[in-house]
Amino acid sequence: MRTYKRKTQRGTTSQDLLQRAADAVIKDGRKLKTVARELEICHTTLQRYVKKIKSGLAPAVGYKPRLVFNEKQEALLSKYILKSASIYFSLLPEEVRQLAYQCAVKFNVQNIPPSWHTNGEAGKDWLTNFLKRNSTLSIRTPEATSAGRASSFNRHNVNQFFEKLGDLITKHNLTPSRIWNVDKTGVQTVLKPKKILAEKGTKQVGAIVSTERGTLVTVELAVSAMGNSIPPMFVFPRLKYKDLFIRDGPPECIGAGNQSGWMTSTEFLVFIDHFIKHTKPSPDEPVLLLLDNHSSHIDIDVIEKAKRNSVMLLSFPPHCTHRLQLLDVGVNGPFKTYCSKAQNNWLRTNPGKVMSVYEIPGIVKYAFPLAATPMNICNAFKKTGIWPYDSNVFTDEDYAPSFVIDRPMPENRPSQGTGNLPVPPNNREKTPEYFDESNSVGSNVEIETSQTILKHVPGQNDCSVDCTSEPSGNQEQETQLIRPLPKAPPRLIEHNKRRKRKTVVLTDTPEKNALAEEQATKKKKKESKTTKKVKGKGKGKGKQTKKPPKKPAKKRVLQDDDSSDDEQEWYCIICCDAYSNSALEKNGLNAENVRIGLICNALKMKKA
C-alpha cells in the first residue's frame, strides 16, 4: 500500500518512556501493570520490552516493515549507484530495479516477493521506498557530456598543464595583473527564453522571440586574474565589415567580419593587436595568455606576433576547457543570462520588429559589465586553481569520469618478424603500465580488478560465490560482478598517425617550429591538390577540333545491318529448301523478290 493511514496509536510509545518504565519494574521491583497504568502504556508492550531486556536482547520500539535487504546491503547498493553516476554511466530506474532483483538472488535473500520472480525485477513501490530510505539518491536529469571530455580530463593531463603553468609563474615572476584568459562565445539574435509566471496547468506557455532561428555573432572576451577585462571583439557574418556595426557596443570595442561569423586566424590576429594595445606587455614584464587549441589560436602568424610582443601563449589540454577554462566556469553562464534579459527588454521596447545582428553590440554592452564583475572573475580563477596557484584543486571525484578509459597501453615497439601487428591478447597484460597523454588517468584503481570485471557480461547471473543474507566483506565486489562497471578494453597499437594536441607553451621555440613545419606541410598538400584539379580541368583547352560529319541515316531494310544480299540465304516455309535451288531462281528471279512476294500473299490470306 503506497499511502497507509494509521488507524491506531500502537507502536508510537517512545524509547525513553519504555526504558523508564522497565527500570521501575526491574530495578525498583514495582508491579508491571501498576507502572503501565501510571505512565499510560499498554501493559503487554511493557511486558515484552522487559522480557527482552531480561533475556539480554536489544529491545526495539515501533513497527518496522519487512525489508528485502538489510541496512548494510542497501548501503552497498546505494554506494554502487553513486559510483555509476560519478563515472557518468548512471543507471535508469528500470535498471536499478533489475539490479535489486539480481542482488537479492545472489545474496540468497529469503523474503523475495513473488512478483520479483515473475517480472525479473523489483517493484516500483520498492524503488520509491528505497529512495526515501536513502536520502542521498534522487532521480535527476543528466547533462550530456561527450566521451572526449569525460576521458581527457584526467589527472595526467591536468598535472601537465599545472606543471607548465607553475614553471612560467616562477620563471617570469608573474603577478595576477599579467595572467590573462581568452575565450570566444556566441551570441545569437534568438536566445532561449527564461522562466516566467503563467497559469498553472496550461500545457503550453509561449514567449515572443525575434525569429525561428537566430544568427550567430562571435564575441571574443579576455579577463585577467586581477578581475579586469578588455573591450570585447565582435565577428559578424558579413563579408564587408563597417565600423557602424559596433556603434552601440561597449567603449573601445572592435569588430571584424567574414562569411561564417566564426573566429578564424585572420580575425584572431586582429584581436592579438587589440590585446597588446590594452595590456602593454614588455620584455621585462611579459604577459601570459591562456587559451584553447582552436585552429585560430595556434596559427603560426599569431604565435610569432605574440612572441615578438612578449606575450606567452599556454594552451589548455584538449577537451578540458569545461573545468580549466575560467570564462566557461564563472563568466559565460551569467553573460548568457543577462543577454537573454536584454533581448527580452529590446523586444518589449520594439514591438513588431525583428532583431538583427546589429543590435548584438548594444546587448553585449548591457550584459558584459554585469557578468564580468571582479568577484566573478576572481572566483573563476580560484575555482580552476590558476590563481592563487593550486595544482590540487581537483579531487578524485572530478577525475571519476575518466575511470572508464583507465587501462594500460600496449608496447608500441613491435618485435622482429611481427611487423605492425597488434599485441596478442595473451601478452597484453604483460605490457608496461604507462598511459597515453590524452587518455591516461592517475587514479588508484587496480588494473587487475578491471581485467577481472571484463570477464563478466553485464546483467548475467554468472557469479559463483555463495552469498548469504548476512552482509559480508565481499558483497561490494559481488555487486560489481552482477553488473560490472563499464571499462574500456586493453589498448591496441594505433595505426592512425594523426597528431594529437596537448598542453604546450606555444611561444616556445621548439613548439613554434613544429607548428610552422606542420602548417607548411598542410599548405603544400593543399596547393598540390589544387594544382592537380586545375590541370585536370584544363586538358584540351584552347584547341578547336571539328566535329566529325554525321553519317547518313541508313534506310530501314528487312535484313540485319551486318548482312548483305549476297550472304543472305532464304528458305521455303513449306518444303524447307533454299530458294537458290528453286525453279524461280533459275528463271531469273532472285530470292529477295520471292521472299517479298510470299510475305504479301501471307498478309492477304490473313486479312481474308
Task: Kindly describe this structure.
With 608 residues, this protein is an alpha/beta fold. Helices cover 40% and strands 6% of the residues. It has a 6-stranded mixed beta sheet with strand order 4-3-2-1-5-6, sandwiched between helices. Helix 10 packs parallel to helix 11 (300-308). The relative contact order is 0.10.
Topology of helices and strands:
Layout: H1 15-26, H2 32-39, H3 43-54, H4 71-86, H5 93-106, H6 114-119, H7 124-133, H8 147-152, H9 155-172, E1 179-188, E2 216-224, E3 233-236, E4 254-257, H10 265-279, E5 287-291, H11 300-308, E6 311-315, H12 321-324, H13 326-330, H14 332-349, H15 360-371, H16 374-384, H17 447-454, H18 475-482, H19 509-537, H20 583-586, H21 591-607
Helix pairs in contact: 1-2, 1-3, 4-18, 10-11, 14-15
Quick one: biggest sheet? 6 strands, mixed
Please state how the strands of the largest beta sheet are arranged side by side: 4-3-2-1-5-6
How far apart are the termini? 97 Å
- Pairing-aware structural class of the strands and helices? alpha/beta
Quaternary organisation = single chain
Number of helices: 21
Number of strands: 6
Provide the residue-averaged pLDDT. 80
Q: Which geometry do the CA atoms define?
A: extended
Radius of gyration: 42 Å
Work out the strand percent.
Answer: 5-15%
Q: Please give the share of residues in helix.
A: 25-40%
H/E element order: HHHHHHHHHEEEEHEHEHHHHHHHHHH
- Uncertain segments are 411-472, 540-545, 553-568
